[in-house]
Sequence to fold (698 residues):
Amino acid sequence: MDVTKIFGSNVFNDEVMRKRLPKETYKVFKETIDKEIPLPAEVADVVASVMKDWAIEKGATHYTHWFQPLTGSTAEKHDSFISPTAQGGVVMEFSGKQINKGEPDASSFPSGGLRATFEARGYTAWDCTSPAFLKEDGAGGVTLCIPTAFCSYTGEALDKKTPILRSMSAVSKQALRVLRTLGNKTSRKVTSTVGAEQEYFLVDKKLFAERLDLIVAGRTLFGAPAPKGQEMEDHYFGQIKDRIADFMKDLDKELWKMGVAATTKHNEVAPSQFEMAPIFTTTNIAADHNQLVMETLQKVALRHNLVCLLHEKPYVGLNGSGKHTNWSLSTDDGVNLLDPGKTPHDNAQFLLFISALIKAVDRHADILRRSAANSGNDHRLGANEAPPAIISIFMGDELTEILEAIAKGQKATSKGSTSIKVGVDTLPPLPKDNSDRNRTSPFAFTGNKFEFRMVASSASISGPSVVLNTIVAEALDEIATRLEKAQDIHKETTAIIRDTMKEHGRIIFNGNNYSYEWVKEAERRGLPNISSTVEALKTFTDKKSVNLFKKYKVLSKSELHARYEIYLEQYIKQINIEANASLDMVRSLYIPAVIPFVKELAETIEKLEAVNVSADVQRKLLKQVSGLLESAYHNNEKLAIEQKKAHGITDSFKRAEAFRDAVLATMNVLRKDIDALETIVPRKLWPVPTYADLLFKL
Ligand code: ADP
Ligand code: MG
Fold:
């Protein structure tokens, strides 16, 4: 496999455009992308026609505006290029108008009240900063995909791409202001970059098909622990089995074709758990690519008779899956602003941007926490294998000491104890890499970027990226304002670092985030500990959040409210589906499987006693099994009642609370009965594959 030939072969990328577009068109097109201005109609026509020819040569028959509605997945409606001729045949056509805008009937996508029913249409607009690409389906069909934003008639965002683009502009503008005060005259743009590591589970397709819970809810709602879990630590980075290697090879190839720079793959901590990571890119492309990664993982898995589980917690008692979202800022002339650098000037810049992060994350820890919230992640965060629900920053001891020394007005020293005066003296290089990385921190500085580890494995990275860009834009705005007014930039830089540490230094924690002591300590520091999605979602509508997103023109009040309603509904629907599946499995699988065993025991007791043989063991078993059976029956009926009650609550927030506190809570009690029965009832009578089957038979 010649990777250099495969990579990007299905992407209408710069190389293709340079080769195929007329010189003048290419120039104007590049400028529009650069300056983020609308594409002139004549140019759009030429681009569309060239794009169409390229796509058709590669087998495409259809095109689609590929967008990301608030469901969290992607949407596409395929239209063919055909246009009838007077002679009764067809020609293949694609105009600038078609490339730029689409008007899918969007009445079935969630809008949270943003779209009145009389205006069912949604409007899509091409994000030309993310290149068009071809998607191949398993049936040999090829479709030209145009990454697009999706808005209502009045321009309100109905999707996950629009706010990314807006937040990227916001952070670029404020970062440039800071850079200008530091004497940077050359950078024209600052881009937020993201590399999203994707964790996932694989399960055999045949076994998956026998688990209704996995099929409809993506996680096991029942299942006693297997005799072996992850305690031997033999899966993490272990040798990749041939069947999996085969799958991964296929996955890489499909992703490379679409220009996704998949680079890392390995076994994860839990049995049957894996990870892939791409090379980072600009945030909007990274978000598009992560959607493609999730989609392709599932598609390719099926080809290998596997099913890919993206759920945050498919199995109780084992590690769940997250999506480490690595985030940084870099200038268009290639400087990573979170890279310590070697000169005093670089250091001042670095420490200012680090200060912005500290300020932003401390002030908006609640919003950042919310960006990782979904019903799946509620099982994971704070469960001793994933970051707790408390946001803190891991900065590493050395960097923390430097920041604290500056805050105290002391001479800061880096290793080797040369004194530091930010931006004035010749500095020893700041620590480049934190070799002893703290794996327990939810938000860790990892040498030249931050790694946000709370993010939900099944979710779009849009939410966390938008939040990071926006909260950092605000912090940079304030820093820039101070610097612009300052007489002495160096003094002011030191003052900014000092003030940041005084006001926001509490967010830094380099210890063990999994420990009970940290929960107590965080409480003492006044850091928020938001344990569930329902609580977390409140931050969509509180004043602080509305003001922030409005000020930087990322999301309006009504857009935030719409998201709040949509995500609350999603939470309720997800728990409701889980409850439905629980009820169904208990009634139609588990109870019917246990009854014959009860009967068999009762008959055996009768027969044994008729011939005067002790039936003690059978009696004990019978008592145990029928006790559990009764409890399961009772709890299942209770679940149905709680579900009905919850549905009856009109206020959506209170309804969501009831689904969490009554419905989900009853499901958990019910599960205990069923899991206990699983350990007693003969294996041959058990109606579904066990954890051992699901986890160790790959
Ligand atoms: P880890 O730190 O998790 O061991 P890597 O250092 O290879 O692994 O990085 C993990 C992810 O972070 C990769 O997707 C990588 O491309 C991404 N990454 C590296 N540098 C940056 C950056 N400047 N901005 C955003 N993501 C980055
Ligand atoms: Mg990582």
Q: What stands out?
A: The pocket of adenosine-5'-diphosphate (ligand 1) is lined by residues 193-195, 197, 277-280, 326-328, 336, 446, 448-449 (CB under 6 Å). The radius of gyration is 28 Å. Residues 160-197+323-530 form one domain.
